[in-house]
């Protein structure tokens, strides 16, 4: 069975660079201050796993976790 991934943004680390939103708009939402949080409960829909890892590796603040369940 394929692994399921979840994304999580650490609100203490996120500085609003928004690279996550640019690279994986399906997985992240920005609040009124431009800080990101995971869309929905963070579950990564099938086929978007690469975008989750891409967003994690491109966040300058290392604020994104990808959790394998
Ligand atoms: Fe924040 Fe990193 Fe995205 S700083 S807005 S989680 S790229």
Short description:
This protein has helices spanning 19-23, 49-58, and strands at residues 5-9, 28-30, 36-38, 64-68. The protein is of the alpha+beta class and 69 residues long.
Topology:
Layout: E1 5-9, H1 19-23, E2 28-30, E3 36-38, H2 49-58, E4 64-68
Antiparallel strand pairs: 1-4, 2-3
This protein binds FE3-S4 cluster (F3S).
Structure notes:
By secondary structure, the chain is of the alpha+beta class. It has a single domain (5-68), classed as Alpha-Beta Plaits, CATH 3.30.70. Helices cover 22% and strands 23% of the residues. It contains 2 helices and 4 strands. It starts with a strand and ends with a strand. The mean pLDDT is 96. Bound molecules: FE3-S4 cluster. The site of FE3-S4 cluster has 14 residues, from α1.
First CA to last CA: what distance?
Answer: 11 Å
CATH C-level? Alpha Beta
Tally of helical segments: 2
**Shape estimate:** globular
Question: Bound compounds, please?
Answer: FE3-S4 cluster
Total count of strands: 4
Q: What name is given to the CATH topology?
A: Alpha-Beta Plaits
